[in-house]
């Protein structure tokens, strides 16, 4: 029986081979290019559909002509590395040919290559405008620029050069930075960077601006010590011990707290409105700060309170927005200040708010949105270094895991540094007690861990928590782990909201018929 079965299978195999259902080894003329890409190690890598017998059929061309192939290395049967005498420019365009076939070589995203980061990662702590009474030193990271200048302005209003005081050329310095020094006391002087790329000159706000004029178009040189309220040096965090799980958080929008006329709060919609005491509504019930204190909360969680785009600071009551549309990350929102036209006011009043809350035993947590910006095309960092801050593929398409039009490329060294520097600045300068991260699943694990490590060096009490949803972003490097719930073990200092616990208690967020325990589910 077994012999007969073997004979039958043998006959079937012969028939299959005769009918071509199982292909024999590919002839060399049938071998085609499957894929080809730049190799950061050496030359180009080529995947073929079969083994190549005649490697002399390979060719590499660029718009400048044909390159000389010095070696073809067979890494596996179908994978080859092609070495050329001429260096491969990572920003160039190349075509691989094999016989009569051609295929464009997939080049890497230059900003995310190891070579770019080795040459252009700046580790100093002096980016931005560094003021003293004698001089101000400006340093900006602009590695792709042909020239950079600083425009000094009398006012913080957006406009042309009609009120420019001086234009100072900057000198190229280490790791893609540019530097200029302006003599004299520039406290209160506004400035922008004029960045030249070829024939194009772009004027941009400083990504490291500490404050700005109205609507955040011009940065302002500032003596930060002069904005400290009386007793600021003695300001202390009210909660420096205990577990993060002991925190009782009250989430609020700065404007909403006092926007209703019945609040009895004088500084309606302002930072200062949060610290008014003795306010009541028409029925004599406590409002604002007194109401919050009566609830027994330990921390106020402020919805985004840095400079954001959707509220016009010249008419702050006209529109409304939650604030999840960043423009200047290190600048308090001007519509929440009593005077958005003078950059020092928003800084001082934010500090007064923090100090006043601390005096009442309440810590301050800031909601931060580093995962995307309001407009990637208009964001100052991307204007200075085109497209660097955002995840953009080889075809110029923005990754959009945020559903806001762009995702932040935190895996790049200078974006990572920017985020770390920014969070640390808020903790240092404004004495913040915690940070809540919006859509942290778009930010990489290394960046998150560096943020926590740097802040905790000097502020070990600061708490961190986040949304950890998996948003499906398109990172620009290999082997990037993102800080979502599934990777929570990789970021031990970060707490995450749990949608599973929420749905179990309250019910499904997307299906009203699926109730939770609190709604009667068994």
Strand coverage percent: 15-25%
Main structural class:
alpha+beta
Low-pLDDT stretches: 1-25
User: How many strand elements?
Assistant: 25
Task: Specify the helix fraction band.
Answer: 10-25%
Summarize the helices and strands and which ones pair or pack.
Elements: H1 2-19, E1 33-38, E2 44-48, E3 58-62, E4 65-67, E5 69-74, E6 79-84, E7 95-98, E8 101-104, H2 114-120, E9 128-131, E10 135-141, E11 147-153, E12 164-169, E13 171-172, E14 177-183, E15 190-197, E16 200-204, E17 219-220, E18 249-252, H3 254-259, H4 288-294, E19 299-302, E20 306-308, E21 326-332, H5 343-359, E22 363-368, H6 380-384, H7 413-430, E23 434-437, H8 445-458, E24 463-466, E25 495-496, H9 499-505
Parallel strand pairs: 18-19, 19-22, 22-23, 23-24, 24-25
Antiparallel strand pairs: 1-2, 2-6, 3-4, 3-7, 5-6, 7-8, 9-10, 10-14, 11-12, 11-15, 13-14, 15-16, 15-17, 20-21
Helix pairs in contact: 7-8
